[in-house]
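Colleagues,

For the teaching module next term, I've prepared a clean inverse folding example: a structure given as tokens, and then the sequence designed for it. I'd like students to try predicting residues themselves before seeing the answer, so please don't circulate the second half yet.
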């Protein structure tokens, strides 16, 4: 399963940088595949956090390259409920 392989590959580097890997989703939307990495941390995730995580995990995913075909890497935050 792609999600499990990705989680095993990136979870430690995400934890080492004080983030929480909430979910990994590999999904086809229309004709495009997305590898969605959903992260969390104490406090709020902002765009800079998503960019940082993207920069940390992209080289790992490129080196292993076990996902056939092209996809869009989407690092995003976990939805927060209304308080």
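(Answer key — instructors only)
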């Amino acid at each position: 399963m792609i999600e499990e392989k990705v989680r095993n590959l990136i979870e430690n580097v995400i934890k080492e940088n004080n983030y929480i890997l909430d979910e990994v989703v590999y999904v086809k939307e229309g004709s495009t595949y997305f590898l969605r990495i959903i992260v969390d941390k104490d406090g709020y995730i902002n765009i800079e956090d998503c960019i940082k995580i993207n920069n940390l995990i992209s080289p790992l995913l490129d080196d292993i390259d076990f996902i056939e075909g092209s996809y869009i890497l989407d690092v995003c935050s976990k939805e927060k409920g209304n308080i």
